[in-house]
Amino acid sequence: MESIQANGYVVHFNENGYEALNKHLQEKKYSNIFIIVDSHTNEFCLPRFLPLIETELAIEIIEFDAGESFKNIETCVSIWNVLTELGADRKTLVLNLGGGVVTDLGGFVSSTFKRGIDFINIPTTLLSMVDASVGGKTGVDLGNLKNQIGVINVPIMVLIDTSYLETLPQNEMRSGLAEMLKHGLIYDKTEWEKFLDLKSIDFADFDTFIYRSVAIKNEIVIQDPTEQNIRKALNFGHTLGHAIESYFLENENKTTLLHGEAIAVGMILESYISWQKKLISLDEFVQIKETIKAIFDDIIFEKNDLAPILELLIHDKKNEYGTIQFALIDGIGKIKINQEVENELINKAFKDYKS
Questions:
Q1: 199 given a catalytic annotation
Q2: pTM here?
Q3: Which residue among 35, 37, 300, 315 has its CA within the 20 to 30 Å range from the CA of 77?
Protein backbone atom coordinates (compact mmCIF):
# COMPACT_ATOMS: atom_id res chain seq x y z
CA MET A 1 0.00 0.00 0.00
CA GLU A 2 1.17 3.49 -0.81
CA SER A 3 2.44 5.54 2.12
CA ILE A 4 0.28 8.43 3.35
CA GLN A 5 1.82 11.89 3.70
CA ALA A 6 0.65 13.32 7.00
CA ASN A 7 1.32 16.74 8.51
CA GLY A 8 5.11 16.66 8.90
CA TYR A 9 5.66 12.91 8.74
CA VAL A 10 4.69 9.84 6.71
CA VAL A 11 2.53 6.83 7.59
CA HIS A 12 4.06 3.68 6.06
CA PHE A 13 2.37 0.29 5.74
CA ASN A 14 3.67 -3.25 6.24
CA GLU A 15 6.97 -4.03 4.45
CA ASN A 16 7.36 -0.42 3.26
CA GLY A 17 7.46 0.65 6.89
CA TYR A 18 10.47 -1.48 7.80
CA GLU A 19 12.30 -0.32 4.68
CA ALA A 20 11.63 3.32 5.63
CA LEU A 21 12.66 2.72 9.24
CA ASN A 22 15.92 1.02 8.36
CA LYS A 23 16.76 3.66 5.76
CA HIS A 24 16.13 6.35 8.39
CA LEU A 25 18.41 4.56 10.88
CA GLN A 26 21.19 4.46 8.27
CA GLU A 27 20.86 8.15 7.39
CA LYS A 28 20.38 9.65 10.86
CA LYS A 29 23.20 9.45 13.35
CA TYR A 30 21.45 8.40 16.54
CA SER A 31 23.40 7.62 19.70
CA ASN A 32 21.15 4.77 20.84
CA ILE A 33 17.61 3.38 20.58
CA PHE A 34 15.02 2.79 23.25
CA ILE A 35 11.90 0.72 22.55
CA ILE A 36 8.93 1.43 24.83
CA VAL A 37 6.50 -1.48 25.17
CA ASP A 38 3.85 -2.62 27.61
CA SER A 39 3.75 -6.11 29.11
CA HIS A 40 1.54 -7.37 26.26
CA THR A 41 3.54 -6.04 23.32
CA ASN A 42 6.80 -7.08 24.98
CA GLU A 43 5.53 -10.67 24.87
CA PHE A 44 3.57 -10.77 21.62
CA CYS A 45 4.96 -8.07 19.28
CA LEU A 46 8.58 -7.37 20.19
CA PRO A 47 9.82 -10.84 19.05
CA ARG A 48 8.51 -10.05 15.55
CA PHE A 49 9.72 -6.47 15.52
CA LEU A 50 13.33 -6.79 16.72
CA PRO A 51 14.65 -9.06 13.92
CA LEU A 52 13.37 -6.57 11.33
CA ILE A 53 15.48 -3.66 12.63
CA GLU A 54 18.80 -3.26 10.83
CA THR A 55 21.16 -1.36 13.11
CA GLU A 56 24.34 -1.74 15.11
CA LEU A 57 23.19 0.78 17.70
CA ALA A 58 22.60 -0.30 21.26
CA ILE A 59 18.90 -1.08 21.87
CA GLU A 60 17.30 -0.92 25.31
CA ILE A 61 13.76 -2.12 26.08
CA ILE A 62 11.57 -0.20 28.55
CA GLU A 63 8.44 -2.05 29.65
CA PHE A 64 5.50 -0.87 31.74
CA ASP A 65 2.34 -2.69 32.80
CA ALA A 66 -0.41 -2.87 30.18
CA GLY A 67 -3.68 -1.03 30.66
CA GLU A 68 -5.28 2.42 30.70
CA SER A 69 -4.76 2.66 34.47
CA PHE A 70 -0.98 2.95 33.86
CA LYS A 71 -1.34 5.81 31.37
CA ASN A 72 -0.35 8.40 33.95
CA ILE A 73 2.41 10.78 34.94
CA GLU A 74 3.87 8.26 37.42
CA THR A 75 4.65 5.89 34.55
CA CYS A 76 6.22 8.79 32.65
CA VAL A 77 8.45 9.65 35.62
CA SER A 78 9.65 6.06 35.87
CA ILE A 79 10.47 5.99 32.14
CA TRP A 80 12.22 9.39 32.27
CA ASN A 81 14.33 8.02 35.12
CA VAL A 82 15.23 4.86 33.16
CA LEU A 83 16.15 6.94 30.10
CA THR A 84 18.40 9.08 32.26
CA GLU A 85 20.02 6.13 34.05
CA LEU A 86 20.73 4.31 30.78
CA GLY A 87 22.30 7.29 29.07
CA ALA A 88 19.61 8.64 26.76
CA ASP A 89 20.55 12.00 25.25
CA ARG A 90 19.34 14.51 22.67
CA LYS A 91 20.38 12.10 19.89
CA THR A 92 18.40 9.16 21.27
CA LEU A 93 15.57 7.63 19.20
CA VAL A 94 12.48 6.20 20.91
CA LEU A 95 10.35 3.55 19.20
CA ASN A 96 6.85 3.19 20.68
CA LEU A 97 5.63 -0.35 19.99
CA GLY A 98 2.08 -0.89 21.20
CA GLY A 99 -1.49 0.28 21.28
CA GLY A 100 -2.81 3.76 21.95
CA VAL A 101 -1.65 3.78 25.57
CA VAL A 102 1.94 3.07 24.50
CA THR A 103 1.99 5.51 21.57
CA ASP A 104 0.24 8.29 23.51
CA LEU A 105 2.43 7.90 26.58
CA GLY A 106 5.63 7.13 24.68
CA GLY A 107 5.08 10.13 22.44
CA PHE A 108 4.59 12.38 25.46
CA VAL A 109 7.68 10.98 27.22
CA SER A 110 9.74 11.60 24.07
CA SER A 111 8.29 15.06 23.44
CA THR A 112 9.23 16.26 26.93
CA PHE A 113 12.50 14.42 27.69
CA LYS A 114 15.34 16.93 27.29
CA ARG A 115 12.75 19.21 25.64
CA GLY A 116 12.07 16.69 22.91
CA ILE A 117 13.77 13.74 21.23
CA ASP A 118 12.84 11.86 18.05
CA PHE A 119 10.22 9.13 18.27
CA ILE A 120 8.56 6.71 15.87
CA ASN A 121 5.22 5.02 16.51
CA ILE A 122 4.53 1.40 15.61
CA PRO A 123 0.85 0.86 16.52
CA THR A 124 -0.05 -2.77 17.18
CA THR A 125 -3.82 -2.62 17.80
CA LEU A 126 -6.56 -1.80 15.33
CA LEU A 127 -7.59 1.17 17.46
CA SER A 128 -4.10 2.67 17.51
CA MET A 129 -3.62 2.04 13.77
CA VAL A 130 -6.75 3.93 12.70
CA ASP A 131 -6.78 6.54 15.48
CA ALA A 132 -3.59 7.16 17.47
CA SER A 133 -1.39 6.74 14.37
CA VAL A 134 -2.45 10.11 12.93
CA GLY A 135 -2.58 13.59 14.41
CA GLY A 136 0.35 13.96 16.77
CA LYS A 137 -1.69 13.90 19.99
CA THR A 138 0.40 12.62 22.88
CA GLY A 139 -0.37 12.53 26.58
CA VAL A 140 -1.59 10.81 29.70
CA ASP A 141 -4.63 10.70 31.94
CA LEU A 142 -5.00 12.78 35.10
CA GLY A 143 -6.55 10.40 37.59
CA ASN A 144 -9.57 9.03 35.77
CA LEU A 145 -9.80 12.03 33.40
CA LYS A 146 -8.80 11.01 29.88
CA ASN A 147 -5.85 12.68 28.14
CA GLN A 148 -5.80 15.81 30.31
CA ILE A 149 -2.00 16.20 30.16
CA GLY A 150 -0.16 16.21 26.85
CA VAL A 151 1.14 18.01 23.81
CA ILE A 152 0.58 17.85 20.07
CA ASN A 153 3.90 16.75 18.58
CA VAL A 154 4.32 14.57 15.51
CA PRO A 155 6.55 11.50 15.26
CA ILE A 156 9.34 11.08 12.73
CA MET A 157 7.18 8.45 11.02
CA VAL A 158 4.48 5.88 11.71
CA LEU A 159 4.83 2.22 10.76
CA ILE A 160 1.56 0.26 10.46
CA ASP A 161 2.12 -3.49 10.20
CA THR A 162 -1.27 -5.20 10.15
CA SER A 163 0.24 -8.60 10.97
CA TYR A 164 0.29 -7.48 14.62
CA LEU A 165 -3.52 -7.69 14.57
CA GLU A 166 -3.15 -11.48 14.69
CA THR A 167 -2.11 -11.09 18.34
CA LEU A 168 -5.37 -9.34 19.33
CA PRO A 169 -8.45 -10.83 21.01
CA GLN A 170 -11.83 -10.15 19.37
CA ASN A 171 -12.86 -7.46 21.85
CA GLU A 172 -9.75 -5.42 20.96
CA MET A 173 -10.58 -5.72 17.26
CA ARG A 174 -14.13 -4.51 17.94
CA SER A 175 -12.71 -1.61 19.94
CA GLY A 176 -10.80 -0.41 16.89
CA LEU A 177 -13.81 -0.94 14.67
CA ALA A 178 -15.66 1.77 16.63
CA GLU A 179 -13.28 4.46 15.35
CA MET A 180 -13.57 3.14 11.80
CA LEU A 181 -17.36 3.39 12.01
CA LYS A 182 -16.97 6.93 13.35
CA HIS A 183 -14.82 7.97 10.40
CA GLY A 184 -17.54 6.88 8.01
CA LEU A 185 -20.30 8.59 9.98
CA ILE A 186 -18.56 11.96 10.14
CA TYR A 187 -16.85 12.06 6.74
CA ASP A 188 -17.69 9.34 4.20
CA LYS A 189 -21.19 7.91 3.91
CA THR A 190 -20.00 5.30 1.39
CA GLU A 191 -17.44 4.03 3.89
CA TRP A 192 -20.10 3.84 6.63
CA GLU A 193 -22.39 1.83 4.36
CA LYS A 194 -19.70 -0.82 3.85
CA PHE A 195 -20.15 -1.79 7.51
CA LEU A 196 -23.94 -2.14 7.40
CA ASP A 197 -23.60 -5.86 6.67
CA LEU A 198 -20.50 -7.21 8.39
CA LYS A 199 -21.08 -10.66 6.89
CA SER A 200 -20.41 -9.25 3.45
CA ILE A 201 -16.99 -7.80 4.39
CA ASP A 202 -13.98 -9.66 3.06
CA PHE A 203 -11.71 -9.57 6.10
CA ALA A 204 -8.89 -10.98 3.98
CA ASP A 205 -8.84 -7.53 2.39
CA PHE A 206 -9.26 -5.66 5.68
CA ASP A 207 -6.05 -3.71 5.07
CA THR A 208 -7.94 -1.55 2.56
CA PHE A 209 -10.49 -0.61 5.25
CA ILE A 210 -7.66 0.31 7.64
CA TYR A 211 -5.95 2.34 4.92
CA ARG A 212 -9.12 4.31 4.13
CA SER A 213 -9.76 4.98 7.81
CA VAL A 214 -6.23 6.32 8.29
CA ALA A 215 -6.63 8.44 5.15
CA ILE A 216 -9.92 9.94 6.41
CA LYS A 217 -8.45 10.98 9.74
CA ASN A 218 -5.36 12.34 8.01
CA GLU A 219 -7.45 14.42 5.58
CA ILE A 220 -9.25 16.00 8.54
CA VAL A 221 -6.12 16.60 10.65
CA ILE A 222 -4.18 18.21 7.78
CA GLN A 223 -6.92 20.85 7.52
CA ASP A 224 -6.78 21.64 11.25
CA PRO A 225 -3.68 20.29 13.06
CA THR A 226 -4.35 22.01 16.42
CA GLU A 227 -8.10 21.29 16.64
CA GLN A 228 -9.46 24.79 16.27
CA ASN A 229 -12.16 23.86 13.77
CA ILE A 230 -12.90 20.82 11.58
CA ARG A 231 -10.67 18.45 13.59
CA LYS A 232 -13.32 18.69 16.31
CA ALA A 233 -15.40 16.41 14.05
CA LEU A 234 -13.24 13.52 15.28
CA ASN A 235 -14.75 14.03 18.74
CA PHE A 236 -18.11 12.60 17.64
CA GLY A 237 -19.09 9.96 20.19
CA HIS A 238 -16.21 10.99 22.45
CA THR A 239 -17.83 13.70 24.57
CA LEU A 240 -20.13 11.21 26.28
CA GLY A 241 -17.92 8.22 25.41
CA HIS A 242 -14.92 9.58 27.32
CA ALA A 243 -17.09 10.43 30.34
CA ILE A 244 -18.48 6.89 30.34
CA GLU A 245 -14.99 5.41 29.93
CA SER A 246 -13.64 7.52 32.82
CA TYR A 247 -16.58 6.65 35.09
CA PHE A 248 -16.22 2.91 34.50
CA LEU A 249 -12.45 3.19 35.00
CA GLU A 250 -12.74 4.79 38.46
CA ASN A 251 -15.77 2.87 39.75
CA GLU A 252 -14.74 -0.39 41.43
CA ASN A 253 -18.25 -1.75 40.96
CA LYS A 254 -17.99 -1.46 37.18
CA THR A 255 -16.06 -3.52 34.64
CA THR A 256 -13.50 -1.30 32.91
CA LEU A 257 -14.47 -0.61 29.31
CA LEU A 258 -12.17 -0.63 26.32
CA HIS A 259 -12.00 2.75 24.57
CA GLY A 260 -13.98 1.57 21.56
CA GLU A 261 -16.68 0.02 23.73
CA ALA A 262 -17.28 3.35 25.44
CA ILE A 263 -17.13 5.28 22.16
CA ALA A 264 -19.68 2.91 20.61
CA VAL A 265 -22.14 3.89 23.36
CA GLY A 266 -21.20 7.54 22.91
CA MET A 267 -21.92 7.39 19.18
CA ILE A 268 -25.39 5.93 19.78
CA LEU A 269 -26.16 8.58 22.42
CA GLU A 270 -24.86 11.44 20.31
CA SER A 271 -26.69 10.12 17.24
CA TYR A 272 -29.90 10.24 19.28
CA ILE A 273 -29.11 13.85 20.19
CA SER A 274 -28.42 14.58 16.50
CA TRP A 275 -31.85 13.15 15.64
CA GLN A 276 -33.59 15.13 18.38
CA LYS A 277 -31.94 18.29 17.03
CA LYS A 278 -33.26 17.40 13.55
CA LEU A 279 -29.77 16.96 12.10
CA ILE A 280 -30.46 13.37 10.99
CA SER A 281 -33.68 11.50 10.21
CA LEU A 282 -35.28 8.84 12.39
CA ASP A 283 -34.34 6.23 9.78
CA GLU A 284 -30.69 7.32 9.90
CA PHE A 285 -30.66 7.19 13.70
CA VAL A 286 -32.22 3.72 13.77
CA GLN A 287 -29.70 2.50 11.20
CA ILE A 288 -26.79 3.82 13.29
CA LYS A 289 -28.16 2.41 16.54
CA GLU A 290 -28.93 -1.04 15.13
CA THR A 291 -25.60 -1.32 13.28
CA ILE A 292 -23.52 -0.44 16.35
CA LYS A 293 -25.61 -2.58 18.72
CA ALA A 294 -25.18 -5.55 16.39
CA ILE A 295 -21.41 -5.31 16.91
CA PHE A 296 -21.09 -4.23 20.56
CA ASP A 297 -22.66 -5.69 23.69
CA ASP A 298 -25.04 -3.44 25.59
CA ILE A 299 -23.55 -1.59 28.55
CA ILE A 300 -25.70 -1.59 31.68
CA PHE A 301 -26.35 1.82 33.23
CA GLU A 302 -28.04 2.14 36.62
CA LYS A 303 -30.10 5.17 37.53
CA ASN A 304 -27.41 6.51 39.88
CA ASP A 305 -24.71 6.26 37.16
CA LEU A 306 -25.96 9.20 35.12
CA ALA A 307 -25.24 12.05 37.54
CA PRO A 308 -21.52 11.25 37.97
CA ILE A 309 -21.16 10.71 34.21
CA LEU A 310 -22.66 14.16 33.58
CA GLU A 311 -20.34 15.58 36.24
CA LEU A 312 -17.34 14.25 34.30
CA LEU A 313 -18.44 16.19 31.21
CA ILE A 314 -17.32 19.39 32.96
CA HIS A 315 -13.69 18.25 32.60
CA ASP A 316 -13.91 17.42 28.90
CA LYS A 317 -11.02 19.01 26.96
CA LYS A 318 -13.41 20.18 24.25
CA ASN A 319 -15.29 22.52 26.57
CA GLU A 320 -14.98 26.25 25.97
CA TYR A 321 -16.01 29.11 28.27
CA GLY A 322 -17.61 26.65 30.68
CA THR A 323 -20.01 25.12 28.14
CA ILE A 324 -19.98 21.50 26.98
CA GLN A 325 -19.28 21.25 23.25
CA PHE A 326 -20.53 18.35 21.12
CA ALA A 327 -19.72 17.33 17.56
CA LEU A 328 -22.99 16.00 16.10
CA ILE A 329 -23.81 14.28 12.81
CA ASP A 330 -25.43 16.61 10.28
CA GLY A 331 -26.59 13.83 7.98
CA ILE A 332 -24.47 10.68 7.67
CA GLY A 333 -21.06 11.65 6.32
CA LYS A 334 -21.19 15.23 7.61
CA ILE A 335 -20.68 16.89 10.98
CA LYS A 336 -21.70 19.99 12.92
CA ILE A 337 -19.23 21.13 15.58
CA ASN A 338 -19.55 23.34 18.70
CA GLN A 339 -23.06 22.19 19.55
CA GLU A 340 -24.38 22.81 23.07
CA VAL A 341 -26.63 20.13 24.54
CA GLU A 342 -28.76 20.44 27.66
CA ASN A 343 -28.68 17.77 30.38
CA GLU A 344 -32.33 16.90 29.85
CA LEU A 345 -31.61 15.78 26.29
CA ILE A 346 -28.57 13.78 27.44
CA ASN A 347 -30.75 11.98 29.99
CA LYS A 348 -33.27 11.21 27.26
CA ALA A 349 -30.47 9.76 25.14
CA PHE A 350 -29.47 7.38 27.94
CA LYS A 351 -33.10 6.37 28.41
CA ASP A 352 -33.38 5.60 24.69
CA TYR A 353 -30.10 3.60 24.75
CA LYS A 354 -31.49 1.33 27.45
CA SER A 355 -34.77 0.77 25.57
A1: no
A2: 0.93
A3: 315
